[in-house]
Write a structure and sequence with these properties.
By secondary structure, the chain is an alpha+beta fold. The protein has a domain of 308 residues: Rossmann fold (3-Layer(aba) Sandwich). Helix content is 19%, strand content 33%. The protein contains 14 helices and 39 strands. It has an eight-stranded mixed β-sheet, sandwiched between helices. Strands 5, 6, 7, 8 and 9 form a five-stranded antiparallel β-sheet that branches. It has a four-stranded antiparallel β-sheet with strand order 1-2-3-4. A hairpin with a 2-residue loop joins strand 1 and strand 2. Helix 2 packs antiparallel against helix 14 and helix 8 packs across helix 9. The longest helix is centred in the N-terminal third of the chain and has 18 residues.
Length: 689
């Protein structure tokens, strides 16, 4: 395929028909490809892996992760008897017991049987008095949802209550009789990226069509977002005009103080993260920000009283200052101070920043492990004027089963739940190593496997990566991978390449648009380092990634085929000429560039796997997976790439499921199937010989 003046128009694309998601010819092609893959990969070992994976996913002793609202802890739970799940709740006292008593609110499987629709639960927003909820229902895992009002006492949907047809929607309560929502219901309501262009206020008892437009953005913008703060004495609504995936204009409408009832744009950089839970405005810019005589560096956290900022003051106090190895991932405002979630050389740290007479002081939260990922979330507290006092901590590591704990600002966190071990970790070691990129940058990666320090012959190894959108890859318990891969003595590596957020905003900005290839080159450097170290060889090394990571491993196939013995490519972007025309692709132009701009297509085509695929090269086998209900990354990417590689005589396997959406997580059976097929593919490639 040659460069064109407008490559996005699809002219000359012989496989364009595979973009017709439910097209008869396309569906027949998918069925034939699935049958071919099943015949090749579904053997006795596949069946054993499927059973093992499903057992882990359905285990009764898993942690039931909860969120607190009012007096209750809410959980969504799937198991063998309830494959689509139960929305349920309990009390903290009951949750602390070995066998909590759960109050079932909504049985999704029973709902599906009544209505004859394959719904999946997609979350719920509880009303201010906690008596009702706005429940989001997704068809087979799509991002688009149908929204319905639900009565928590009667456990029924409210007749004549708030209801919004299926669309990409977000909604929240202003009060018991008023909601705000943004919904891409039709072309006028939608941006070019397919998200809501308008935010509306809807009062109970009035038609949906009469809902008042209270905020709107332009058609070419990505979306109109909003957030509602109902904290007593700090009530406010914030609105975001998302210009692209990285830039926003932010507006706030406080209900108290000198600016009550006014909507004011915050004079902030367009690339910034903020929070304003109470009286303060916390700001973390993505690029250095010159404010008066001072500069707030990218990735720092600064604070000022919101009213003073609106009055024109700019004397920010610095709460956190990044270093070359320490980056701020997120923060929580609490009554005790600001809880900072930090990565220190890709290892989790939690620190409490407290305001004193001499500025902000930092101290580490006590009794937390040194080599793990640690996440913090507020545990209720949304109705407390002085901010919440409790946070729930989630601690996990590659070989460390996940635990949760509750911290109230005093002493050590108190253990809540501990997950069971899903695999035998005897002899498992975790090592952090570094590859050297082409420009000399050190690229860290984790290597996990049995008896690493003992050496030995090269072993089959999976290299996983993502490298985009400032997403950080951190240690997480490897339940299924541990059972199906590590127990057999194989190795697994996780690459912290540029494009992610492991070392702050600059790590992401180093691989965007014209420099997007940097993430791909970093990944190739890690692959070379693994082979050079002797733990594996190119023939025994596979790469795996999904979504943007699917693009990453697609470029490994087409740009660096000599480095790998197999490629496992999940829900990928691959046709970078047409990605902006397919579903949510328009929203990612800030990450990849615009193929309809000739200057930007000039660099995009250099890493577009669909356009680089060639019969003149020898490629390793590739397994490409997608989902028909994925309304984020179009399944046409995977379909067309598989068809093109097949036409070129290259070794390719393909599988498309018909339920699950982009994450594939709405059904444990489908998840187990996808994992088992992937490992069956690896057994037939890098594990042979």
């Amino acid at each position: 395929m040659n460069a064109r003046s407008n490559p996005a128009d699809g002219a000359g694309d012989e496989f364009l028909w595979l973009e017709e998601i439910e097209g008869e010819r396309a569906v027949q092609w998918v069925a034939a490809q699935n049958a071919r893959t099943d015949a090749q990969l579904r053997d006795a070992a596949y069946a054993a892996d499927f059973d093992a994976a499903l057992k882990i996913l359905n285990a009764d002793d898993r942690i039931p992760f909860v969120s607190k609202s009012g007096d209750h802890l809410y959980n969504f739970w799937k198991d063998e008897a309830h494959p689509r799940g139960l929305w349920r709740r309990t009390t903290l006292a009951s949750y602390r017991s070995a066998a909590p008593e759960w109050e079932i609110l909504l049985d999704i499987d029973a709902l599906n049987e009544r209505e004859g629709i394959s719904w999946a639960f997609a979350g719920a927003a509880r009303s201010p008095d906690k008596s009702r909820a706005l429940v989001s229902l997704s068809f087979n895992g799509t991002d688009a949802v149908e929204l319905r009002e639900f009565d928590l006492a009667t456990k029924r949907f409210v007749d004549g209550g708030f209801q919004i047809p299926q669309a990409k929607t977000r909604a929240d309560w202003l009060d018991g009789d008023t909601i705000l929502f943004g919904s891409a219901l039709n072309a006028d309501d939608s941006t070019a990226a397919g998200y809501a262009r308008l935010v509306r206020k809807w009062r109970r008892g009035t038609p949906l069509s009469d809902a008042e437009v209270v905020f709107e953005v332009e058609k070419q913008d990505v979306a109109a977002w909003f957030g509602v703060n109902r904290r007593p004495t700090h009530e406010a609504v914030a609105y975001w005009r998302a210009l692209d995936f990285t830039r926003s204009q932010i507006f706030v409408e406080p209900q108290h103080g000198a600016f009550a009832g006014q909507r004011l744009r915050l004079e902030l950089p367009e690339q910034v993260s903020i929070s304003l839970e109470a009286s303060d405005l916390f700001v973390s810019p993505k690029q250095d920000w010159r404010v008066g005589d001072n500069t707030i560096v990218a990735g720092a956290l600064a604070v000022i009283a919101l009213d003073r900022f609106l009055e024109g003051s700019r004397d920010f106090a610095i709460v956190f200052q990044p270093t070359p190895t320490r980056s701020l991932q997120s923060w929580l405002e609490t009554r005790h101070g600001v809880v900072l979630q930090i990565l220190d050389d890709v290892r989790g740290r939690l620190e409490l920043a407290s305001r004193g007479n001499k500025g902000w002081a930092m101290r580490a939260l006590p009794d937390l492990p040194d080599n793990a990922s640690i996440y913090a979330e507020n545990f209720g507290g949304e109705d407390e004027p002085a901010l919440g006092s409790e946070i729930v901590l989630t601690v996990t590591g590659f070989d460390r089963p996940t635990t949760t704990a509750l911290w109230n600002g005093e002493g050590a966190p108190q253990l809540l739940k501990r997950a069971p071990a899903s695999f035998d970790s005897t002899g498992i070691e975790v090592a952090q190593r570094h590859a050297i990129a082409a420009d000399g940058t050190k690229i860290p990666y984790f290597l996990i496997g049995k008896n690493l320090s003992a050496g030995g012959p090269p072993r089959p190894t999976i290299l996983y990566g993502y490298g985009g959108f400032e997403v950080s890859l951190t240690p997480a318990y490897m339940g299924i991978v541990g059972k199906l891969w590590l127990e057999q003595g194989n190795l697994y590596a996780v690459a912290n390449i540029r494009g992610g957020g492991e070392f702050g905003p600059s790590w992401h900005l180093a691989s965007r648009k014209a420099t997007k290839h940097v993430a791909h080159d970093d990944f190739a450097a890690v692959a070379r380092d693994l082979a050079a170290s002797g733990v594996t060889t190119a023939q025994k090394l596979a790469c795996h990634g999904g979504s943007n990571g699917g693009l990453l491993v697609g470029t490994m196939l087409t740009r660096y085929p000599e480095l790998f013995g197999a490629v496992w490519c999940s829900v990928p972007l691959l046709d970078m000429a047409r990605y902006t025309k397919l579903l949510a692709g328009q929203s990612w132009i800030a990450e990849y560039g615009d193929p309809e701009n000739p200057e930007e297509w000039a660099f995009i085509q250099k890493y577009s796997p669909y356009h680089l695929a060639s019969a003149a090269k020898t490629y390793p086998p590739i397994f490409i997976t997608t989902n028909r209900t994925d309304d984020r990354v179009h399944p046409g990417h995977a379909r067309k790439m598989a068809a093109r590689l097949s036409a070129l005589g290259q070794p390719v396997w393909f599988n498309e499921t018909v339920a699950g959406g982009h994450s594939g997580a709405v059904d444990n059976t489908k998840q187990a199937q996808s994992q088992a097929l992937g490992f069956a593919f690896l057994r037939s490639t890098i594990c042979k010989g």
